[in-house]
Write a structure and sequence with these properties.
CATH superfamily of the largest domain: Winged helix-like DNA-binding domain superfamily/Winged helix DNA-binding domain
Shape: elongated
Number of helices: 7
CATH architecture of the largest domain: Orthogonal Bundle
Strand content: 5-15%
Bound molecules: zinc ion
């Protein structure tokens, strides 16, 4: 199963789910069969609550499985976690599809609008329709709004979309 998803991809998934802590936890899961949240907390030094939160997040994406047993001495539940590598590929694909959709929407927006800009760092580009109402004055810095050529942005978006479509086999 792991031949499909390489370590690099695995870590990217973990990073997309949260932070460095998520990456550490996935790393531990990857090198364990089944492991309890207590053990993960001990191995990583990450607080147990945080470990559990991240594990439940992974669980909600079906990236880990959960088995519950009861501690005979204390009567408390013990949670055993296991990575589900065969679910990862589906998860990665759906993530990529979501990104692709967003990029396509953004591309349409860029293509269908003519932008005006004051060229002050921190100010925003303004679509033509709004620029007219503002009489071509930036509402923030009051400088004149001039036409903004978004050809470069469209080009980059097109490249990214093409790349993702290739990866998705579309
Ligand atoms: Zn401005």
């Amino acid at each position: 199963m792991f031949s499909i998803v390489d370590d690099d991809t695995l870590m990217k998934v973990a990073a997309s789910l949260g932070n460095e802590e998520a990456v550490k936890i996935v790393e531990i899961l990857k090198n364990s069969g089944e492991i309890t949240d207590d053990q993960i907390a001990n191995k990583t030094g990450i607080r147990l609550n945080t470990v559990r939160k991240i594990l439940y997040n992974l669980y909600s994406h079906s990236l880990v499985s959960l088995r519950r047993t009861r501690d005979e001495k204390t009567g408390w539940f013990i949670f055993h976690w296991k990575l589900q590598p065969n679910q990862l590929e589906g998860f990665i694909l759906s993530q990529k599809r979501r990104v692709l959709e967003k990029l396509v929407t953004r591309l349409e927006y860029e293509k269908n609008h003519d932008f005006y800009y004051c060229y002050t760092p921190g100010c925003k580009r303004i679509p033509f329709e709004d620029a007219v109402e503002l009489v071509f004055r930036c509402p923030i810095c009051n400088k004149p709004l001039v036409h903004y050529d978004n050809t470069k942005i469209i080009e980059i978006l097109n490249q990214k979309i093409e790349q993702l479509r290739k990866e998705l086999g579309e």
